[in-house]
Every structure is written in C-alpha cells, then in structure tokens.
Amino acid sequence: MVSSGLRYIRWFEELGVRDVPDVGGKNSSLGEMIRMLKRRGVAVPDGFATTAGAYRRFLEANNLLGRIDEHLQDLRTGARPLSSVGKSIRELILQSEYPPDIADEIQTGYRELSLRYSIPEMSVAVRSSATAEDLPDASFAGQQETFLNVVGEKELLIACRRCFASLFTDRAIAYRNEKGFDHLQVALSVGIQKMVRSDKASAGVMFTLDTETGFRDVVVIDASWGLGEAVVQGMVNPDQYMVFKPVLGNNDFTPIIEKSMGDKEKKVVYATGGSVRTKTVDTSTKERRSFALQNQEILQLGKWASIIEEHYGMPMDIEWAKDGETGELFVVQARPETVQSQKQPAALKTYRLKQTGYRLLTGLAIGEAIAAGKASVIKSVAEIDRFEEGTILVTGMTDPDWVPIMRKALGIVTDFGGRTSHAAIVSRELGIPALVGTGEATERLQPGQEITLSCAEGDHGYIYEGIMDYEVHEQNLEDMPQTQTQIMMNISSPAASFRWWRLPCEGIGLARMEFIVNNAIKIHPMALVRYPNLKDEQARKTIGDLTRAYENKTRYFVDLLAEGIAKIGASQYPHDVIVRMSDFKTNEYANLIGGREFEPVEENPMLGFRGASRYYSDLYREGFALECQAIRRVRDDMGLTNVLIMIPFCRTPEEADQVFQVLAENGLRRGERGLQVYVMAEIPSNISLAEDFADRFDGFSIGSNDLTQLVLGVDRDSAELAQLFDERHPAVKKAISELIQAAHRKTKKVGICGQAPSDYPDFADFLVEEGIDSISLNPDSVVPVKRRVAEVEQRLGPSMP
Questions:
Q1: Of 75, 327, 486, 598, which sits with the fewest C-beta atoms within 10 Å of its C-beta?
Q2: How do residues 348-374 score in pLDDT, each as one tens digit?
Q3: Distance from C-alpha of 801 to C-alpha of 770, rounded to nearest angstrom
Q4: Is residue 591 within 8 Å of 575, Cβ to Cβ?
Q5: Cα separation of 177 and 101, whole Å?
Q6: Where does 415-512 show beta strands of DSSP type E?
Q7: Are 714 and 681 in contact (CB under 8 A)?
C-alpha cells in the first residue's frame, strides 16, 4: 500500500535509505529491508512511520516551539538544571493534543495494519527514530523511548505522544548539547510495527563481525527467552552463538563455530491489564538449561545477517525476534555497526599484565584493554551523583541514563549482560574496557577498593585485587613487505586467534590443542569415556556438574574441542591452520579432572608416554578417538577444510604407520578432502630418518625446544644447565640443515614452530638462508621477524635456496 493522500504517515514498503531526513535511520532501514531484501527471504514485520513533518506540525499546532526554546534558554544560561528543564519540556508535549488530521492518519494506518494480519486490534511496537534534515548521518541511537505491546488506537496515540516527548529526555538533551546540534532542528519519527510474539519464544541481537576484535568473517548472535529488551538492556547473560560466514552458503556445512549457554535468569513478557504492557519474570529451570535457538535457526539468522551486510556494504548491528505462535524468525531493526568497523588497521595495540595477582571476579571481556583504579559501586541510577570521575564503575546493569558517568569512567563492571548489552556497546564506543555478566560484582567489590580490570586475556576478563602494573605495546602494520618465506603464527587460545587476525601472516603453523583441553574442557578424555565406572567420587561429581547439559559425556569433549579449533581455523581461513594433536605429558594429563585414574606415574614424563605413542595405545586410544571426532566435526561439518593436523613426538616411521592406521579408523585419511598430516621434527630420529618420515607425511614442523634438548642432551627445564641450552648450537643447526635438505629432496615442506626465531634474529637469518619454507612465530614477533626475513631475502636475491 502506498500512502497516497496521506501527509503524515508513510508505509515501510515505500521507504528507503534516502528517506532518513523524513523518517529517521531506524524507520528508513526497516523500509529498505522490506523493499529490497524481502525477495531474498529476509522477513521484516510490516508497519508504518509518522514523518518528521508530523512532529513539526504537532509542535506548531500547540505553539510549543517558543515555549520549548524558553526552557532551553534556562539551561544555556544555567538558570535551571538539566533535570528540571527536561521534565518541563516533556510535560509540555505530554499535555498537548494532536491536530485532528495527524491523529486520523495514525489511526487509519493502525486499522490498515490490523486488517493486513486479520486481527481486530493489532499489538504493535512503537519506536522513536530521531532525525535532522541537515544532519542525515547523525546518530541518535538509544536516546529516545520504545514502547512494546501497544494495543488499540487510544493507547497508540498515547505511545506516539510519549515518543515525541522522549526527544527531550535528559540524556537526549545532553547528547545534542555535546554534539552541537540545534534542539529545534532535530525532529522525531515514530515507527509503528507489528509485534513479534517473542514473549512466547526468544529474541536478541546480532552483529556481522566480532564485536571485540572486529574480525569480519563471523556473525555473533546473542539470544535469550522473551522480548529482546532483556538482551538489549543487559538484564540477562544471554546465549552466544558464532557463525562462520565464508562457508555459510554451502548447505553441506553447519558452520556454527561457537555455542555458549547463558544463564538467562529473567525474561520480559506481555503484561495483562493496566497501563504497563510488559513485565519481567523469572525463567524456568528448563529455559535456563536450554539454548534459546536451534541450529537451523542460528544458521538462518546468520544468512540473513550476511544478506543485510552485503546489501548495505558495511558491518551491521541487527535486532531479531522469534514468534512463539508461528515459529517464524524476523528482523526488527538494522543499523550500521559504528565501533570496530571504524578502527584503522594501520596499528595494533595490545595490553599485557606484568605481574600475577589474586582474581576476585570473572566475566565476559569487552575490549582488549586494562584499567586499574578505585571501584565506584553504584547500584541505582538515582545514585549516579556519587560517582567519582577516573574510577571504575561497578553496577548491576546500565541503560542510556548512565552514559554521562560512563564517559568519565576508567572501566565498567556489571553483574548482568552479554556482549550486545548496553554496557558492552557503550564501553566499546568509549574505548574503555568492561567486564559484563560477573554475577556478583556489586556484592563482592567495595566502594573505593583498589582493583585491576583486565580484558587482555581472551574471551573472559578478570578483576584482580589491587593496582597491578601493565604495559601497552603498539605494532605498526603499515608498509609491511612481502616475503617468499611463509610467515605463520603459533596460537594456543581461540580468543587470541581472533585478537591477532589483522597481523600480516599466512596461516597458523602451530595450534596447540592442549590449551583448549586444559582451559575450556578441563576433564581428562578417558574420564568421560569411562564416566559411569569412575572410582574417584569427587571427580565424578565435578564432571557431572560441568557436563550437566550432556547425556553423552564424550560429546562434551568433542563439542568444546571442535568449537575451539574451529575459531582458530576461522581466524586465518583459507590459509592453512595446522593443529597439533594432544601432546600433554603424563603428569600434565593427570592434573586434568579425573586424570589420575588413567595416567602412569613416570620418572621422566618428557621422554615417556607422550605424543604419538599414546594414540594407538589401549590406555588412550578411545581418548584419541574423541580428538579425531573433533577434527572431523571442524572439517566435515563446519566446513573449515583449511584445518590440517600434526603428529607430535613420533619416534619411528613404524610408529607413524600405527598412528595413520588409528587415524583412518576414526575417519581421518591423509589426502581425503585435502587433509594433510604433518609431523613434528623434534627427535634425532626424525632427522636421521627424514626421508622415511617424508614418505609418510606431507611435511615437517621443527620443534626447536625438544630438538635442542635431545641433540645436546640438556634438560630444557634445568636451571643448572640453562647456559648449555642453545638452539643456535652448531649441532642443532646442522640437524635442521640436514632435515631441510632431505625434505626438499622428497618435495616436502619444512617449517619451524619453536621459540628460537622469535628470540634470536640471527637464527631467523639462518633459517631463511637454509631455504626453510615457513616460520611460525608468537604473535608479538610476527611484524619484526617478517621485516627481518624480507631484508634477508632481498640480500640473498637470486641465490636464495
């Protein structure tokens, strides 16, 4: 329906991005999606918008312009405070009447919308969308009000009037003053849209990039039960899902690379009777222990997000809702993402604590910075006058009324909320670290207590006791040279792989599986395999608690390991990501939950039951099968075929044959679907029998630490022998040179993933001179070593091996 003859309302389907001056960014975007993306399957509820002209006509008809300006003059001169001025202007608007023609058009639109859905009186969402004719790109997000579950013409007119009044909330006035906008040049459009019955299902927010690092190849989705306000306002710790975009169009794959269950303790639902149309209630135990979306729904939202991003040509911030009556998904808002997408990639700033401390709290890390200072514990917006500038704000959750003090904070800590909550979004915009969803910060931390807030340690951040010392390191990424030698990274943490995605490297030469097992899974794989028969009752109880959501306990191991590996693989796709199969020593395995029941006590674990020897042993074969299942899940189900595997501490070619047999039994066959299998070169036998190993593997990765200790007979952990441990010793360099020559005779690749090239620039020179194919480095060494390698290659010129 086109709004022929209507002056003050416009239907969404006739709106587009060029209509921002008339209906604001929110409403013009809804219209753009209905007009352009409905044909591609993106579902947006119908509705209409009042125009900026309707707002201005309302003010003129009630002679409000001059009276509003008088109140604003009091604010400009300091005669009255903001709270008094804002309240007076809002009361003026709320006490005013609609011109009959505007009221008639709004009522006409409402009746037509109800007819479209064959509902006598439609429940609608009424949202404010501010605009300025001469400032079409100005952002007024979060400054005005939204009203949900509005039913009936009378209630709709009241809600629209309240939206008009919300143009003069204290926070909106303060924002425009700060930006230098003329209050009377800004207008307000009201969007009236069919409500999605997500009160009977779920809703949330999604971004078309990683909100913490700016990594562009994922869609991050937050979801919780009930109306989306619970997620947006940070009332709950929602579920979080992450979808990998590059393979999303291939229906053979399910590229959900993360599923984290939030506690979702509250939900917002419809209220019946009275003027309050929504209420907050507790969720059920079943809801708290269930994901709010099924896999196919996660993928559907991911596809829609990608379509919306492609259409707008920029990263997007999108609100979605699921209708509990029909089971349908809808997009209810979409706007440009304004933080990570605006960052300049020329420099990479990283933070690192220089000492260890006592952890008081943990939560989701927002940003990657560190802040240290005193805590200001403020439990209510009525108390914000007590906030001290230059302290760390600690509160339950935030909304736009908190922004004035958030701007003065060193960092923010909340009890509730996820990565798309108000506190998270504002902290990113302000460039300060935040820790959200801690659960108990306002109870555990005291006013004036000295704390350190660290968001520099991965997905989760921490509050430490006291003021801790930290350092900031900035790497210049401009004018990076190209190198013939492939520069790769060593990565342990999935979160770290996203943090370093901007580095100029080509893949990951060593992804350490042990970090995921130790920090995310925490349980010995054999303790999951043998769970019903565990002798250690305490371990059995702990495992039961951790795996509560899993009837099949081994699936817990496979799911968490696969998700961790997938995130690492995604960070460098389509470049190779080489995942080393588990290389714990027996004493390290024993320290996992339930591990002591399955590990022998060894005098020298470094040379004991480790690496390849475990994989075909009856003591660990079933545990290794779980590792293989995780790799298959990543490659075959999620579509990350760039993930390759590496076998550590393989002592003989015959042992390699046994490992390949076990791999094949678990569905991992070298060469199938491009699977490559590398071997660590860290034992003298790997060097002396290099050609035999080369006949079996696709390439070698030199582990310089183990190779040095075994060539020189020096325990790498011995303080007394530290002066003898040197990767640059002629014996070690000779072994490396022999390996490179032997591998190249067999046309196999050789890389190095040890610490030596990072620590010793001259060692990197040696490797390039010998013709090594790749050098895998710790992230903080990538830039300087790459520049060094380029210089060596230029010096060698045509004589380079």
A1: 327
A2: 888 999 999 999 999 999 988 999 999
A3: 7
A4: no
A5: 33
A6: 434-436, 450-454, 460-465, 470-476, 486-491, 508-512
A7: no
pLDDT tier, 140 (very low <50, low <70, confident <90, very high otherwise): low
Taking CB atoms within 8 Å and a gap of at least 24, the contacts of 792-798 are: 792/764, 792/765, 792/768, 793/483, 793/484, 793/485, 793/768, 796/768, 796/769
Q: Tokens in use for 84?
A: 């008094």
Pair of tokens at residue 26: 């929110």
> Are 292 and 202 within 8 A, CB to CB?
yes
First to last CA, the chain: 71
Q: Is the pLDDT of residue 288 over 80?
A: yes
In the structure encoding, which two tokens stand for residue 739, read together? 């390996």
Surface-to-core class of residue 35, CB atoms within 10 Å of its CB (0-12 exposed, 13-18 middle, 19+ buried): middle
Token pair belonging to 718:
């011995």
| pLDDT score at 399 | 84
Mean pLDDT for all residues in the chain: 93
| Cα–Cα distance for residue pair 610/626, rounded to 1 Å | 17
Q: Which residue has the higher pLDDT, 8 or 347?
A: 8
Query: Across residues 116-143, what is the average pLDDT?
Result: 76
Q: What is the average per-residue pLDDT within 717-743?
A: 93
pLDDT digits (tens, 9 = 90+) for 492-522: 899 889 989 999 999 999 999 999 999 999 9
Secondary structure letter of residue 518 according to DSSP: I
pLDDT at 755: 76
DSSP-assigned beta bridge partners for residue 282: 266
Query: 716 vs 611, 650, 704, 711, 751, CA distance in Å?
Result: 18, 19, 11, 11, 21
pLDDT band at 136 (very low <50, low <70, confident <90, very high): very low
Short-list 9, 16, 8, 13, CA closest to 46:
13
Report the percent of the chain where pLDDT is more than 70: 97
Q: Which helix (H) or strand (E) holds 348?
A: strand 347-353
* Residue-level pLDDT at 137: 47
Half-sphere exposure of 491 (CA within 13 A, CB side): 32
CA distance 167 to 90: 8
Reading phi first (left if > 0) and then psi (alpha if -120 to 50, else beta), residue 5 is in: left
pTM of the model as a whole: 0.90
10 Å Cβ neighbour count for 114?
A: 19
Single-letter amino acid, residue 225: W
Cβ-count burial of 394 within 10 angstroms (0-12 exposed, 13-18 middle, 19+ buried)?
A: buried
Contact by Cβ (8 Å): 96, 164: no
Residue pair 263/288 in contact (Cβ under 8 Å)? The answer is yes
pLDDT single digits (tens) 427-471: 988 889 999 999 999 999 999 999 999 999 988 999 999 999 999
Closest to 779 (Cα-Cα) out of 488, 441, 519, 417: 488
Give the single-character DSSP code of 637. I
DSSP-derived pairing of the beta strands 359-366 and 434-436: antiparallel
Among 443, 442, 407, smallest CA distance to 426 is for 407
> Is residue 400 within 8 Å of residue 414, measured between CB atoms?
no
Compute φ and ψ for 561, nearest 5 degrees.
-70, -45
Mean pLDDT score, 337-343: 81
Three-class secondary structure assignment of 65-106: HHHHHHHHHHHHHCCCCHHHHHHHHHHHHHCCCCCHHHHHHH
Tens digit of pLDDT for each residue in 662-675? 999 999 999 999 99
Rounded Cα distance between 777 and 793, Å, is: 18
508 within 8 A of 578, measured Cβ to Cβ: yes
* Residues 278 and 661: beta-carbon distance below 8 Å: no
- Give the contacts of 574 (CB within 8 A, at least 6 positions apart): 246, 642
